[in-house]
Request: fold
Amino acid sequence: MKVISISIIAFCLLLLLPMSLTHSAAPAAGYKPARKILLGGEGGWDYLAMDSEARRLYVSHTTKVVVIDVDKGEVVGEIPNTNGVHGIAIAPDLGRGFTSNGRDATVTIFDLKTLKVIGSAKTGGNPDAILYDQTTKRVFTFNRMRADATSTVIDAATGEVAGTITLGGRPEFAVSDGKGKIFVNLDDKNEIGVIDSNKLAVI
Reply:
C-alpha cells in the first residue's frame, strides 16, 4: 500500500513538474525587451560602465571598448587597442575615461567627448576591475596576477601612477563608498578587503 501511495504521489509530481518549469521560465508581468542593439565583432565581453551624464554605455569587447548611445540605441564609437580589456572607469568631472587592459597590463586613458586616446599607464599584472574614486581623484585597478595581487593607483588628472597597494588576495570587483573607502572582494580568500583611498593602504 505504501509503495502504491508513493508511486501515485511521484506520478502527480511528475505531471506538475512541466507546469512549474514553464511558470518559472515565464517573464515577469509587464517586462519585455525594449530594443536590440547589434554590436558585432568577435570575442567575449566583461564589464559595462554607464556614463549617465552623456547617456553613453561602455562595453568591453576583448580588444576594444564599444560605445553606445543609449537613447538612440546605436553604436557611436569605440576605444581601440585595449588588449584583453576588462573594465571601464568614468571620471565625468575630469572628462576622462580609463580602461583596464588585462593582457598588456596597462590602462588606456581617453577623452569622454571625442573618445580619442590621450594617454596610458602601466599597471600590475592582469588588471581586471577598475574604478574612479571621485573623493581622491584617483583611478584604482585591481590586478589579478597570482604573484602580483595588487591595486595600481593612478592620478586621474595627470595619468601618472601614484602608488601600488598589496592586497593579500586576488581581487575581482570593487566599489567606492565616496567617503574615502574602497571595498574589494578577494575571491581566493573569501574576504572583502577595505582600502583607505587617501592613505593607499589596506585597513
Remarks:
- The radius of gyration is 22 Å.
- Residues 1-15 have pLDDT under 50 and may be disordered.
